[in-house]
Amino acid sequence: MPKRPALLTAFAALALAAGCGDRAILRPVQSTGAYPQLPKPFSPVVPTVNIASAWGWPAGAMPVAAEGLRVTQFADNLAHPRTLLVLPNGDVLVTETASPGPDRGHEGRSLRGALMYTLTSEAGANVPSANRIMLLRDADGDGVAELRLPYITEGLHSPFGMALIGNTLYVANANALVAYPYDPAATGISAAPRQVTWLPAQRNLHWTKSLAAGPDGMLYVGVGSNSNRGENGMNEERERAAIWRVDPRTGRHSLYATGLRNPAAIAVRPATGELYAAVNERDGLGSDLVPDYLTRVREGGFYGWPWSYFGGHIDTRVRPRRPDMMRRSLVPDYALGAHVAPLGIAFSQGQRLGPLYANGIFVGLHGSWNRRPLAGYKVAFVRLENGRPTGDPFDVLAGFIDPTNQRAMGRPVGVAVARDGSLLVADDVGGRVWRVSAAR
Questions:
Q1: pTM above 0.85, yes or no
Q2: Residue 368 burial (CB < 10 Å; 0-12/13-18/19+)?
């Protein structure tokens, strides 16, 4: 069994001594919804460190589905699966990917960089990126992908987002948006990709680039910030913490929305064509702040980062202050909870999982690293009413944390609704794709 790195053990002890008062005082439900409670910021000298070590699933173990649902294994033995795309013919594409690694000229030389590398290693993130997209096919409809083939192996650099428009498959690498010719009859693509446009990389603190195809024929790319709160200087944040709108024909882009620290998951609602995003908010203000959120994205909207959060709540650590930007800051639609790390969203499609899931959004919550106690590590469902997220979120798939030792047996990432209406969940630590269906 893996041992906890000495640096992390030492830092955790220091963090406990420096920030021993930092424990969540709010119940999770109090940090969610349209009007979350936002307590006074608590900013310890050393940030809270409380991470679930990546362990993997013991033989025969699996997550726990909500009442009325059942979970089965759709595919296993995958190399850090992260995002999913269901193709029109029912095939499923899954990215096998991980961080391209720290830029040793930047983060790698700092104490913070060394700490973050150690923390992400503990969480199971610092594995070599397979840089591969796999095809999964359940030809006989039994809920198990009996065919699994490498679909794309060339031209990938920590791929994350995927989108299909007509006969072109688009992939958002960590450093570029690229395009491949798509043939529904083929089980692989060997053609070299065409670069549509570059994407910000450099330090690349947030390397994942989310992707969605809009009804206007444009592509939307989520580009995370290069820092937690702008501490590396705003020159490094040029065109980051934003959602880009890209013309797939010319590669020209504009900033569709800004002030989104890390829009790690974006999707278009089929019924209306509206763009939604799940955003990972800032760290270092205590276990109860700042809630990550789900929101409809307004064109031209500014959502606060780095100067404020959840509307006009000022982050006093950021200098110089920008009252003009804080006044512009929009309030997100819906808080998902502090530090839950949403990395995947998918809209429900009808009642094939039951009437409870007829109208809403599934959210893959990857889980916290600096909150006490742990939060996230599950798939949640948020109902929609008149297009707005509403009510309390509720668990669809949980049980990713071993209750006896607080280790992560798996961590949910991307979610997608399969052609048969089941919910597919990528589990990077577990190396699996889970399938959630209605119990019979």
A1: yes
A2: buried
